[in-house]
Amino acid sequence: VNRFGLVYTIQGSVNSLRPIVFTAHQDVVPVQADGTWKYPPFKPYYDGHFLWGRGAVDCKNNLIGILSAVEALLSQEQWKPKRTVIVAFGFDEEVGGANGAAHIAAELEKTWGSDGIEWILDEGGMGLVIQGDAIYALPAVHEKSYLDVYIDLEIEGGHSSRPPSHSGVGIVSEMAVALEAHPYRPLLVGGSPYYKHLVCQATYSPDTDPWLKDALKENKLEYISERMSAQDRDIRFRIQTSQAIDIIQGGGKINALPEAVTLGINYRIAPQDSMEAVKENVAKYVKPIAEKYGLTVVSFDGTVLNHSESVQETETYRGTIHLRQGESTPRTPISPTANNVWNEFAATVRHVFSDYANTVVPVGDIMTGNTDTRHYWSLTENIYRWSPARIGTRLNAHTVDERLDMSAHIDGLRLYYGK
Ligand SMILES: [Zn+2]
After folding, report:
1. N or C: which end of the chain has fewer CB within 10 A?
2. CA–centroid distance, residue 413 to ligand 1 (Å)
3. 246 alpha carbon to ligand 1 midpoint, in Å?
4. CB of 124 within 8 A of CB of 62?
5. Under 8 Å CB-to-CB from 394, ≥6 apart: which residues?
6. pTM (two decimals)
7. Angle at CA 347, nearest 5°, toward 342 and 352?
8. 200: number of Cβ within 10 Å
9. 27: CA distance to ligand 1 center in Å?
10. Crossing angle for the helix pair 275-293 and 168-180, nearest 10 degrees?
């Protein structure tokens, strides 16, 4: 599909059953400096425990796992699936999936109709978490929304031998500092997938912290939010909007003042905040700094928030700040966890991982990233994002020394194979 997209269909014997779709992506993020890797990133190395290499965790394990399971099943003559099985692999997930998954979605919709798929399983989720006698299987049934914001400053340049007190880089840096000084608040939303996850945990794990059990009973959501978010970043960013200043660009010559400076900020928005609120918040912290230097601010929708007249310093800075929205993905619908499709999926999960603990508790969770499934909403409401791996088995996705504990690969294989 669209040259690099791969879709394989294994026809089932019962036509009235909607197909299931297993998906993963073929692309990886680039390597920034391969000299810093322990093993060359594009020469996979297996040390007997971990498989090292770019893509080992994100998510060629899913891709190879799905293919291996399908191959193993197809080689058995007695394997005749009732339900059609579709395997679909995009190739540009890391840059939004517009060329891969978007085209695959259109193709599948053409063949099977809108809402024509039973369920879709992609990478993602919060893995397998063992706690006491219970193991929690945490497929994501919801993704945070996604937003990139750019602050573009155009400012008068000049010779570096007679600079103003602040160059464009300095001014934009001040904005970066102001934004980072005001992170978003964590908040556990009652009834949300993560809330349900905690309630399940309190029900099935006797060793759940007593304070958490009590606080859930008393519905002290703010108190829980504060304590939980202090524990680790995985938990924190399920309930808090993240703000990461990832790009600063500006200046081209060491003896010339920069005339254009850009700051790029990536947001993953938690349920209690909205895309509009995040944009307003950026404007709120940028505006006073712009005012201080007498810079014009043009907001996201073209409204001028500040004119360059109001200079308060003795120096004049002539320039304009444009607030710009980049890529964005709206909040995903929440896949139901109280219908027959979920029940069947959850039963499979319980069966597959029953040897790990006395109780296997599948519970839908929220995930902080986005996957190719952002293009698949029209195919089914039942979208599960899940790489079934235990904590500590998937290391360094998107950075140096990406590596996968082989046991996590086996866990994935077991799920795809169904045993
Ligand atoms: Zn991925």
Report:
1. C
2. 17
3. 19
4. no
5. 57, 127, 387, 404, 405, 408
6. 0.86
7. 125
8. 18
9. 8
10. 140
Cα–Cα distance measured from residue 126 to residue 316, given in angstroms and rounded to the nearest whole number: 52
In angstroms, what CA-CA distances link 411 with 1, 65, 235, 418?
A: 29, 9, 23, 10
Q: Which residues are catalytic?
A: 27, 93
C-alpha 276/C-alpha 267 separation (Å) is: 12
Q: 47 Cβ partners below 8 Å, 6+ apart?
A: none
Tens digits of per-residue pLDDT, 307-341?
766 555 567 788 999 999 999 988 899 999 999 99
First to last CA, the chain: 31
Distance 371 CA to ligand 1 centre (A): 6
What tokens appear for 58 in the block? 């994100």
pLDDT digits (tens, 9 = 90+) for 192-244: 999 999 999 999 888 889 999 999 999 999 999 999 999 889 899 999 999 99
Question: How confident is the model over 351-377, as pLDDT tens digits?
Answer: 999 999 989 999 999 998 899 999 999
CA–centroid distance for 319 within its chain: 35
Alpha carbons 389 and 407: distance in angstroms, whole number = 8
Query: Helix 406-417 crosses helix 60-74 at what angle (to 10 degrees)?
Result: 40
Vertex 164 angle, CA 158 and 165, to 5°: 145
Helix (H, G, I), strand (E, B) or coil at 395: strand
Task: Determine the distance separating the centroid of ligand 1 and the alpha carbon of 412, expressed in angstroms.
Answer: 14
Residue 309: count other Cβ atoms within 10 Å of its Cβ.
Answer: 7
Tokens of 252: 């081209």
Which DSSP string corresponds to 281-312? HHHHHHHHHHHHHT-EEE-TTS-EEE-TT---
Within 91-205, residue ranges assigned H as helices are 101-112, 168-180, 193-204
Q: φ, ψ for residue 134 (rounded to 5)?
A: -110, 150
One-letter amino acid for residue 61 of the chain: N
Pairing assessment for the beta strands 119-122 and 20-25 based on DSSP bridges: parallel
Question: 321: part of which helix (H) or strand (E)?
Answer: strand 319-329
Ligand 1 center to residue 398 CA distance, Å? Answer: 9
Both tokens of 230, joined, read 């202090």
Let me know how long the chain is.
419
CA of 410 to the centre of ligand 1 (A): 18
Alpha carbon of 50 to ligand 1 centroid (Å): 18
Among 341, 337, 336, 372, which Cα is nearest to 119's?
341
